[in-house]
Amino acid sequence: MTPMVRLAGVNKHFGDLHVLRDIDLEIAGGEVVVVLGPSGSGKSTLCRAINRLEPIDGGVVEIDGKELPAEGRDLAALRSDVGMVFQQFNLFAHKTILENVTLAPIKVRKVSKGEAENRARTLLDRVGIGNQASKYPAQLSGGQQQRVAIARALAMDPKVMLFDEPTSALDPEMVGEVVEVMSDLARDGMTMVVVTHEMGFARRAAHRVVFMADGEIVEDSTPDAFFQRPSSERARDFLGKILTH
Amino acid sequence: MNVLLDNLGEFGSRFLGTVELFVLSAVASLVLGTVLAAMRVSPVPAMRVAGTAYVTLLRNTPLTLVFFFFAFGFPLLEIADLSFFTLAVVSLSLYTAAFVCETVRAGITTVPPGQAEAARALGLGFGQSLSLIILPQAIRAVVPPLTSVQIALLKNTTVAAGFSVVEAGGIYQVLSERGYSTLVGLLWVALGFVILITPLTLLQRSLERRWSASSGGAVKAGAR
What we know:
- The complex is a heterodimer of chains A (245) and B (224).
- Chain A is α/β, with parallel strands linked by helices and 245 residues long.
- Helices cover 38% and strands 24% of the residues of chain A.
- In chain A, strands 6-7-8-3-9-10 form a 6-stranded mixed beta sheet, with helices on both faces.
- In chain A, strand 1 and strand 2 (17-27) form a beta hairpin.
- In chain A, helix 3 (97-107) packs across helix 4 (113-126) and helix 3 runs parallel beside helix 5 (142-154).
- Chain B is mainly alpha-helical and 224 residues long.
- Chain B has a single domain, classed as MetI-like fold, CATH 1.10.3720.
- Chain B is built from 11 helices and no strands.
- The longest helix of chain B is centred in the N-terminal third of the chain and has 33 residues, at 8-40.
- The radius of gyration of chain B is 21 Å and the shape is flat.
- Chains A and B meet through helix 2, strand 6, helix 3 and helix 5 of A and helix 6, helix 7 and helix 11 of B.
């Protein structure tokens, strides 16, 4: 079976810094992969490289068997199949919540306005923001904004959802509501790549844990195996640091 | 008062000329300036170079020289036979567009990069990201300086009088020919410009108020 996401020999440098080193990764449809690692390990860069928001120096990125070109119309088309949720939400500040969710379906998928709005309202209800559709992003809490961001990505019926530290900018009391929406998605069979520090989500919802350090994938195993029997020194060190406090 | 009342027709037709010059040049300069700003942030190097060259040339040239070129140089090229009025609109538009471009570009830098990333991640192309997401926010951010550029344009229309275009900057000549006090006449002209510029200031305020509300500013103000 064709993997939903395939990275082969992906390399990336920031100046002298080699942030992604020969990354090979295959993710099957419906799989939930959590990417863990210390800061600076390249995990966010890996996540952003999957839809080429981060240009790469070498290697191949394929989504559902199609290679992502470096730029141009074809790249935009393939990106529309990959949902992305950012640490800073990045909702369009000058658009209402409803417009945020309907914009790309109308402009990219050419869906009619009425149809897009119906679908948007369903999605907003699903993430619990249905009654705030006419507000602007700045009028919502961080947790609410992030749930809208998830609805906005889902409105494109993506094949894969990428989450780049989706809860890192949230106040602690709002983390739960966002993790809950993500867990629902995972249960529904969405293919997900999640860069996070939420160990609870990694244990409960992930099928696989990918542990990165210094731009390399150091471990790739099940959550149980990773948390209970990490095989590398760096993973043991990392887990020791985050689990002791 | 007689200076104004006796020459009301002259004042009227000349200020009408000023308004026509301004409205046409304002629209053209806003459109061209925005296109130039888009060129200057585009991923295509040739576009960026062309945009930068345009701004460097037009912004650093005195307006009078731009007028000289179009009034006397351009006709020699025999490309098209245009009236002084049209040439004045062209000069004012091209000159002001350079300033509009730089103002809009400043606005673009105030839009957080995450906005463009989110647009690209959803599959929007460069043109769509720019026109739907970046420019609307950029222009909201620069309403006050953009208004200043347009006010400068309105006053710059008086340069056209030197090139026999019928507009308010030339009123004093008519008055002096007819034997009226040019000084008093010029005070009326000044008052005329104040009256013309007031609506621009009011427009600026209403846009600022409306757009601060739509980005959540009203909520912050209400929470105090």
